[in-house]
């Protein structure tokens, strides 16, 4: 799903599905202001308009929010390239990277290169269901150079229960969101092997240190202070305590490695994938 | 309890108690190599000698390890002042500080000032029972200037399951060990109010930031990097997940503040105190 904003209207591209009762998902969202399939029980603002037509959804938008699983990003960008406003600003909430022949490519870079526009990122300790019921949380906007654009994103997302901070370190913020999922697998192994709290805290700390070292190896501009932001230590904590990577890794270790990750993923994640 | 080392012998001062069967605790420890009251089920090295006589225990020691509740530290120091080797090195595992009329005084400073010797500290994500059964964990030695003394402490404590790292930031390390207990109370409130994982991660992150700011206000020499060590982020994690401060604060919040901390402490901690 990728959201597109245009003045007060939030046009949300939705991959169209037919619901069991024969209705189209976008129609139901627009009639009920509720995404009955993926976020049931939560009322969306009346200014959110679901649109099954990707090109139509992005056409007039001045702010583009990307929130799809990372494996779909390249295809989506290729479909909308040349069909958006030249002055549009993008932000990516997508966690992950494309590993290409010539090396790893961050999703924000992919967006910038495919669409020819500036792209910031938003990451943090942000379990979606908790944000939806307005429990207090924080997030980090990472931006490259355009501080004004970053401030606009902060203004857009900021509420009394969702505190957003901008830092000039797009790669650091994006890599935090991506690499913590690797650490969560290690944390899951520790849980599965019942190694205790000292070991788990050590794994999380060493994982954070590895995240920092790896990020700085890829991008020497990455700042230490970014790892103290919500996208860093806080997201690491939530992901290593809850999170599907941790959960499946725990099951893997509990089974002594005798059941594959593919098998456990299919059984435990109801169609979602490890990231 | 304060331990004292002298070549291969570890002389451990034990506050003498008579056990229900009429035997003295120190006698039982020396006969069985087990602290049957405070660490039952764990065999101590045969070189550990329990001694009920504080002055005798410290007299010939060249390395002094302090591990008592912080409220007893000043009295203990006054009792042994002038009765130790002038070249003894001290290390404090004590968490807390003395708040005096003239301002806060770190325990390592108290030891140095009262005894006229150098004092390092050891802190980290170190739940004692887990270390006792040799589960992997890490710790941080904080030292002031004497790097050689710090290396000797590292050598003394280091094993294949207990990884010790030395950093030149005695105040930073000691304040981490002290201040995380305050953050754990906030984490307990979040748990008691069922505010969710995003909020808890935010509280822990903001707590870590406050710990850093407060430490640097007291001691401008404190380093940011110390908060990435085991004494920092890792100990904060274990304390905010388990830990008695978290637990009692959770109960306080669950009871809507209607039962006092004193009452809950007496009921829940079997004679231990919040720190």
Question: Overview of this structure, please?
Answer:
Chains A, B: One of its GO terms (cellular component) is cytosol. The structure is a homodimer of 275-residue chains. The first copy, chain A, has helices at 25-32, 54-58, 73-80, 107-115, 128-132, 147-157, 170-192, 197-218, 230-241, 244-254, 261-268, and strands spanning 2-6, 9-13, 48-51, 63-66, 89-92, 97-100, 103-106, 119-123, 137-142, 162-167. Chain A is an alpha/beta fold. Chain A folds into two domains: 2-169, NAD(P)-binding Rossmann-like Domain (Rossmann fold, 3-Layer(aba) Sandwich); 172-268, Orthogonal Bundle (N-(1-d-carboxylethyl)-l-norvaline Dehydrogenase, domain 2), CATH 1.10.1040.10. In chain A, the strands form two sheets. The first copy, chain A, has an eight-stranded mixed beta sheet with strand order 3-2-1-4-5-8-9-10, with helices on both faces. In chain A, strands 6-7 form a two-stranded antiparallel ribbon. In chain A, helix 6 links the parallel strand 9 and strand 10. In chain A, helix 7 (170-192) runs antiparallel to helix 8 and helix 7 (170-192) runs parallel beside helix 9 (230-241). Chain A is globular. Chain A starts with a strand and ends in a 7-residue tail after the last helix. The interface between A and B is large, with 37 and 37 residues.
